[in-house]
Amino acid sequence: MKSTQELAAEQAAYWNGPGGKMWLAAYERIQRGIAGFSEVVLKAANAQAGERVLDVGCGTGGTTAELAKAVGASGHVLGVDISEPLIGAARAQKLANASFEVGDAARHRFEAQAFDLVFSRFGVMFFADPVAAFQNIRRALKPAGRLVFLCWRPPSENPWGAVPMRAAQPHLPPMERPGPEDPGQYAFGDRARVERILSEAGFVGLSIEPVDLMLNQGKDVADVLERIGEFGPLARAFKDAAPEQVVQAKAAIGEALKPYATADGVKLAGACWLVRARPA
Ligand SMILES: C[S@@+](CC[C@H](N)C(=O)[O-])C[C@H]1O[C@@H](n2cnc3c(N)ncnc32)[C@H](O)[C@@H]1O
User: Fold this and answer.
1) Strand 265-279 to strand 141-152: parallel, antiparallel, or no bridges (unpaired)?
2) Residue span of the structural domain in which 203 resides
3) Is 161:155 a contact under the CB 8 Å cutoff?
4) Whose CA is nearest to atom 27 of ligand 1?
5) CB-ligand 1 contact for 15 (6 Å cutoff)
6) 79: which strand partners?
7) Is the beta carbon of 104 within 6 A of some atom in ligand 1?
8) Would you say residue 78 lies in a domain?
9) Is 221 within the bounds of a domain?
10) Residue 197 placed within a domain
11) Does residue 165 belong to any structural domain of this protein?
12) Residues 8-31: pLDDT tens digits?
């Protein structure tokens, strides 16, 4: 079993290396795919004029910009991310009322009791020690502040990720399977685990609601196949595979996606938890 330090170092290396690079390259398409989920979490966050907001794992700062609009000139948003290249892209937006810092949100020295809202869109599932990380985040919230984030439910409830992966797997070399509690995309899939982490980290008033929406993966199957494996577990699997294995895997994914092709795109279901809490 890997130690907490090893897991944290792996995440930092990934997001500063291949993960950050792939996220940047695929960002526009990812953004379009998850647009419905973004709307839901931003609405739930309900950022108000004048508020101070922290966007955890802000990536290229897409949601930071939306939050900055909502808080207006009298408010401020701080985006924090472990990835230097992604923070570079976020800073390039030159937002007047937002700033960005490179840092591990699990250990970053945030100003204590400074934020009305701590927000994250898919940026909190990568902590090696999530309880310690959320304790650190809680200390940054004002006593009357709120935490609002979105995370994925398990792969079995997310056909947009599971269908291509299941089709590709027989054609690819065996993949390293993360443990259910290892940091990663689906690490917060288990609702009971999310509840336990937040309670142990000193949050109360927990609300963990399912959000189910369709993800549009591309205009048709050929369009999806052109870019499949740009990011995420399939990208890692393709990297370790021989070129002919990738060709076979893509052909199998194409077959598996056919039933999901509609007149306005290839649509597969996605499932998230919308999580809200406040400091104890
Ligand atoms: C799936 S991406 C989401 C990015 C962004 N929230 C968005 O929706 O566009 C996950 C982000 O979390 C960041 N991240 C991972 N571990 C982190 C940590 N310990 N502290 C801060 N950011 C982290 C990654 O660098 C990456 O930008």
Assistant:
1) antiparallel
2) 4-155+180-214+271-279
3) yes
4) 59
5) yes
6) 55, 100
7) yes
8) yes
9) no
10) yes
11) no
12) 999 999 999 999 998 998 898 899
Burial class of residue 185 in the structure, from the number of CB atoms within 10 Å of its CB (0-12 exposed, 13-18 middle, 19+ buried)? middle
Tell me the β-bridge partners of 81.
102
Average pLDDT of the segment spanning 59-67: 98
Residue 88: per-residue pLDDT:
98
Mutate to test the pocket of ligand 1, among 38, 81, 86, 102 (most ligand atoms within 8 A of CB): 81
Closest-lying ligand 1 atom to the alpha carbon of residue 12: 16
**Is a pLDDT exceeding 80 seen at residue 177?**
no
CA of 82 to the centre of ligand 1 (A): 7
Tokens read off for 249: 């895997």
C-alpha dihedral sign at 120, 103, 52, 200: positive
The CATH number of residue 12's host domain is 3.40.50.150
Beta carbon of 126 within 6 Å of any ligand 1 atom: yes
Note the pTM of the prediction, 2 decimals.
0.95
Above pLDDT 90, what percent of the chain? 88
Ligand 1 atom nearest 120 alpha carbon: 6
* pLDDT at residue number 259: 97
Confidence of residue 235 (pLDDT cuts 50, 70, 90): confident
Cite the DSSP H helix spans in 84-213. Answer: 84-91, 130-140, 159-168, 191-200
Number of domains observed in the structure of the chain: 1
User: If pLDDT is split at 50, 70 and 90, which confidence band does 180 have?
Assistant: confident
Tell how far CA 152 is from the center of its chain.
8
